[in-house]
Design goal:
Blueprint lengths: L5 H7 L26 H5 L13 H14 L3 E5 L2 H12 L5 E5 L4 H13 L3 E5 L13 E7 L11 H10 L3 E5 L4 H4 L9 E5 L13 E5 L1 H13 L6 H33 L4 E5 L9 H7 L6 E6 L4 H9 L4 E2 L9 E5 L15 E5 L5 H18 L1
Parallel strand pairs: 2-3, 2-4, 4-5, 5-6, 10-11
Antiparallel strand pairs: 1-7, 6-7, 8-9, 9-12, 11-12
Helix pairs in contact: 1-9, 3-9, 4-5, 4-8, 11-12
Bound molecules: pyridoxal-5'-phosphate.
The site of pyridoxal-5'-phosphate has 13 residues, from helix 4.
Amino acid sequence: MKDDKPATRAVALGRMSAEHFGVVNTPVYRASTILYPDYAAMVGADPEYTYGRRGTPTTRSFEAAISDLEGAARTVTVPSGLNAIATAILSVCGAGDHLLVADNAYGPTRVFCEKTLKRYGVETGYFAAGDDIAPLLKPNTRAVFCESPGSLTFEMQDIPALAKAAHANGTSVLMDNTWATPIFFQPLRHGVDLSIQAATKYVGGHADVMLGTISANESHKARLEQTHGNMGLYASGDDCWLGLRGLRTLPVRLARHQETGLTLARWLAARPEVARVLHPGLESDPGHALWKRDFSGACGLFGLVLKPVPERAVGAFVDGLRHFGLGWSWGGFESLIVPSHIVRTVRPFVAEGPVLRIHAGLEDADDLIADLEEGLERLKRAA
Ligand SMILES: Cc1ncc(COP(=O)(O)O)c(C=O)c1O
């Protein structure tokens, strides 16, 4: 199993057919009470299943599969990606600590740090992708939180270098790895201590589940389990079942998202209405060398900077699109487009014109290009 490629492992992982009459997929367990056969079993050594919130075969199947792909000692599941981010941070940081967050982290991650964490005495600072973090690390910097490529602007981070600097200061490294998924990048193998997935996106893959995972290395496993357990966190059997089902086709879907994403990115980069495309998979992207060194692929999510146009022209472009939905998510089978609202602390993101984010879905790339082409004609007429 260990030497098998991710696509092979994604098919085989987390299956418990022998315990379920040969049924291929672990069924959905909906459970609160779990009965013990007798008193001795109840007071005896740790049984596998004790109470619904503490896990069922469905949650264990999903967690075991993610752990294997991430190369983790333990994975826990939570009700959303944002909850995975918050729980991972809470498992390492406490009152009096300093947390260093990537300036291009997912917006709600920043809000969690600035609003909620602050009330518990954790101070947050920011670093920009590419900056040396060593001078920003304080004796009380408990964790560095990063995302690569970053949300909306897609800059890459040098994760091994970042982990080296953090660990030299006794600081833990946490990474939101939703963009690459463990199929294209395994954070724990590059020095990260806690790897986070919004499984809502590509793992679920069908725009119908909210789910998060946190995968820990050996040294961070106990604190993660403790925090997860003490906060009473639990992702439902139905949702973990959807996560596991999504995982089976994840490598196949990602290959197609990657191909279509790069096709659209290259086509858009050559258009006169476009100032630049933000996609580390493009040879011209400033993060391409890092992406090529550490990642084995790209998903279908990338950014687009238009040349300066009035907002009504952006509306005209987006409103008539037939295949790109207007929705604040990504990772499902469908193509999406959203305007990007970019908040940065260290230094502003300087854009030539309006910035958009595109998710390349599983539709035929020719149809998507024809749709974008008509949209750009509308944009020009409305400008
Ligand atoms: C990079 C990234 N991380 C985390 C999340 C949060 O995931 P969820 O919506 O499941 O809370 C998102 C959602 O858009 C995201 O884009």
